[in-house]
Amino acid sequence: MCSCQAALKPGMHWLHETLALLTSQLRPDANHKEDMVFLKDVFSEKSLAYLMKIHEKLRQYERQSPTPVLHSASSLAEDVAEELQSGPMSVEEKELLHLLTSPHLRAVLSVHDTVAQKNFDPVLPPLPDDFEDELEEESVKIVRLVKNKEPLGATIRRDEATGAVIVARVMKGGAADRSGLVHVGDELREVNGISVMHKRPDEISQLLSQSQGSITLKIIPAIKEEDKLKESKVYMRALFDYNPLDDKATPCQEAGLPFKPGDILQVVSQDDGTWWQAKKVGDSNLRAGLIPSKQFQERSFRLSRKDRQGSSGEANASEPGEPEFLTYEEVTRYQQRPNERPRLVVLIGKAANHLFLEDFHEKEGVEYHFVTKQAFDADAQNNKFIEYGEYKENQYGTSIEAIRSVQAKNKMCLVDVQPEALHTLRTGEFKPYVVFVKPRIPESRRRRSAATSPAGGEHGRITEEELQEMRQSAQQIEQQYGHLVDRVLIKEDSASACAELRGILERLEREAFWVPISWIRT
């Protein structure tokens, strides 16, 4: 085959352009006509030119070292789809919903998330030659996977009858689950060539957690593998604080999912009656973690209470109307529809009353009404008040019918109540949105006379004792009712607090929020 030269223009480094120029230089002669025709046909193929262009684009993209904008495009698409389905849709919105729920786009987004979150190094080394001699035909399998600075995503247990180390759980989205090679019921024999036959479960868990990069598992497959977990659509609002590192009962601390009161958890599996698998809504981590089930956590609380009562000899009574143990509350997304009554907005906290007095200007006959003492006492006896009491020798009460009257006019109703009233108001009828108006309270101050009232702006000076009382009141509300609060409004000053509250009211009319699922089913 004769040689040929292609004169490149200065600065031309694109491979597909080089091939095109080379093709134009091919001139078949008498001795190598067939070779030249073959080369010209190969270099002239459109598919080859397309591949070269793709190659150059990928190289250019690689040199830019791009970083993903977000790691959870699939979750975002699901949230948008749920938002679209929660109300009437225009033609454009229906088309967008069709695109977001199409299997092809969902697959593309899933691949995007996988690539955005996974570190594909290191490359798995080849299997040792002596492994083949150790394998029992059709009974043992060698699983090679990559685990980079993350838990394996599987828990183990010791079979009491046989003593075998069995895979108890496979965490949704973890390294074991993504591999598709590890299943519940598999018997684990070796980790990186180290036998686990006579090791304790905690020793094996430590061995697995310390293994980084390439990890090799020798497994005897389960005779009857369980079906792969199907991701559920069960959402729970956490009502308590949980840290797996402080939980001695958890089967695997590194697989635990920490959360705070108010966090929304998507429970992806309740197959285990003791430990559920869940993901935190809004978290970019696609791997599920272990959380105590509702029944197990209630039992833990019950035992803990008995221990406290046994040591102190005193009972720890629950709040009136409060469930005995606060664990989880099943929730769903809800958006007010045009034909529905607006949600009730409930303000709690000592600073809330000041906000009403200063910014919303209550008027007699509009925001409140005077009645005779006899009429007031009769309404109180007939349970017509959400709450009532006495302040500076004057009786006051919040009427249930007054709230219903405002909502019947398709108006948004705001009430300022004591936190105890939430037990009465949290129903499907009112669907309250609870705002804790919390004053900005300084932790300390150099001069006692330098502080102004955080609740009343510049309206007066307050003492250190009053500041301490505000701190204690806010802390008590957060501890006893924080799990029922939808929004904490920090009252820096009256104007900013009022503006923020008006923004909340506008969002309630057009956006979806998490509410107890019982409010929708009733």
From TrEMBL:
Annotated region (Disordered), positions in chain: 298-326
Keywords, ordered alphabetically: Coiled coil, SH3 domain
UniProt KW tRNA processing keyword: no
Stated name of the protein: Membrane protein, palmitoylated 3a (MAGUK p55 subfamily member 3)
Keyword Ligase in annotation: no
Bias-annotated ranges (Basic and acidic residues): 298-309
Limits of the SH3 domain: 231-301
Gene3D superfamilies to which the protein is assigned, alphabetical: 2.30.42.10, L27 domain, P-loop containing nucleotide triphosphate hydrolases, SH3 Domains
L27 domain segment(s): 66-123
Species per Swiss-Prot/TrEMBL record: Pygocentrus nattereri (Red-bellied piranha)
Record-stated family: Belongs to the MAGUK family.
PDZ domain span: 142-223
Pfam families: Guanylate_kin, L27, PDZ, SH3_2
CDD domains, alphabetized: PDZ_MPP3-MPP4-MPP7-like
Residue intervals of the Guanylate kinase-like domain: 362-506
Coiled-coil segments on the chain, per record: 460-511
